[in-house]
Design a protein that fits this description.
alpha+beta
């Protein structure tokens, strides 16, 4: 499915990456689960929980922007780090128009997540 550069193991609650960091990698959940969350005014707001077989970290990877959330292991979790060279070859093989569409979609997803987190923080306490 994916060319995996390496595998890493994480313990329950251990951060795989943190909000605001820059990510040059995408991840594939080989075993376990991952919680994606943001911390707003000291409060943890869970965006989603991901399970085996799912990919995460794609928004920062595609947009080359800072990570929009923190990813942490739920239980003992093993993730594969998707090889950037292989993915870049696949991505670069796409037409420039299609690359632009994917970048726009990733950026919109980040903006939508930011808006929803702000709304939740403002109105749902």
């Amino acid at each position: 499915m994916f060319n995996i550069a390496t595998y890493e193991k994480f313990s329950n609650g251990e951060a795989i990456f943190k909000e605001g960091s820059f990510g040059d990698w995408m991840y594939f959940i080989e075993k376990g689960a991952v919680e994606i969350f943001r911390t707003v005014e000291g409060k943890k707001l869970v965006i989603t929980n991901l399970k085996e077989g799912e990919v995460f970290g794609e928004v920062a990877y595609i947009t080359k922007a800072a990570r929009s959330a923190t990813a942490a292991a739920i239980g003992n979790t093993t993730v594969g780090i998707i090889d950037r060279k292989s993915f870049d070859q696949e991505f670069n093989a796409l037409s420039s128009d299609f690359q632009m569409i994917l970048k726009v979609m990733a950026t919109r997803l980040k903006v939508t997540t930011d808006v929803l987190i702000d709304l939740e923080n403002k109105y749902i306490k």
